[in-house]
Amino acid sequence: MELTRGVLVTGAGGQLGTALSEEFADVPVFPLTRGDWDVALPPPAHLPEVDVVLHAAAWTDVDGAEGHPQEAAAVNVGGTQHVVELGAPRVVFSTDYVFDGLKREPYVESDAPNPRSVYGRTKLQAEAAAGDDAWIVRTSWLFGWTSTNFVRTMLRLGAERDEVAVVDDQRGSPTYVGHLAGNMRELLELPQGVWHLAADGECTWAGFAAAIFEDAGLDCRVRPITTAELGRPAPRPAYSVLRSQRPDAPRLPHWREGLRACLERLG
Ligand SMILES: NC(=O)c1ccc[n+]([C@@H]2O[C@H](COP(=O)([O-])OP(=O)(O)OC[C@H]3O[C@@H](n4cnc5c(N)ncnc54)[C@H](OP(=O)(O)O)[C@@H]3O)[C@@H](O)[C@H]2O)c1
């Protein structure tokens, strides 16, 4: 795809939006934060015409969505409808949480979604609202060098404590936003529709935490706990590894490589 008119990024203040804005810095890029455009509202009149919209804005507070379903839907579903109104082809980011997690082998694009949380339901509705002219990218367990995320939280806790309790009965593929953003140009040359794009490999949150401490040289133990012990408001899939069944799908590096790249970036 020619990107002469450029790329508009929503959610540019978030961890993925930051990585996308950086990735497309060699073409005209219009990074819009929530202050520039609250996507729950119709698009402002002055937005530039672009070749593609990378829609990374979302209500991502999974637990908060349980108590605020209408507000979460206004951002996730309404926001996607408003992006469609711009008329440009679009990449809409979705999530492993559209699946119920009952499988024990990777979820592929043809598997039937069955979200268990409000967040997952709004994201599935957003997929339906994305229209025909869209790439729907389902990804999982994102982490990067900005915003609040699991890696940054563990680095903070690991420096403060001798031990942290981390859930060990949810499996997924932690995906580095730099690697996902780096695959977008390849995706834009491929047909539209649903694509599963997540890091290679899989682990539990406890395994991820142990790798973070090891690679960061932090002397902190991981105490494995169950999801029930943690007692969060939103249900989460016990297993949500994503793989693509499409032969030409872009391949992302292993999550361990993503972790190393993220730690280097964080200095
Ligand atoms: N994080 C994950 O583990 C994960 C996993 C799978 C898929 N995804 C999907 O990947 C995409 C990017 O997620 P992320 O991890 O980059 O999330 P993030 O860091 O929370 O970024 C989301 C951004 O959206 C913005 N936003 C929230 N409400 C908005 C509104 N009404 N109007 C405009 N902007 C708004 C937020 O702004 P504020 O900072 O001002 O709130 C934030 O900058 C989302 O579609 C998410 O559902 C995420």
Offer a concise description of the structure.
The protein is α/β, with parallel strands linked by helices and 267 residues long. The chain has 10 helices and 12 strands. The strands form 4 sheets. It has a 6-stranded parallel sheet, with helices on both faces. Strands 6-9 form a two-stranded parallel sheet. Strands 7-12 form a two-stranded parallel ribbon.
Can you walk through the features of this model?
This protein is an alpha/beta fold and 267 residues long. The chain is built from 10 helices and 12 strands. The strands form 4 sheets. A 6-stranded parallel sheet has the order 2-1-3-4-5-10, with helices on both faces. Helix 4 links the parallel strand 4 (90-95) and strand 5. The longest helix is centred in the first third of the chain and has 17 residues, at 69-85. It is globular and about 50 Å long. The mean pLDDT is 98. The structure holds NADP nicotinamide-adenine-dinucleotide phosphate. NADP nicotinamide-adenine-dinucleotide phosphate (NAP) is lined by residues 11, 13-17, 34, 38-40, 56-60, 75, 93, 95, 123, 139-142, 147. NADP nicotinamide-adenine-dinucleotide phosphate is lined by residues 11, 13-17, 34, 38-40, 56-60, 75, 93, 95, 123, 139-142, 147.
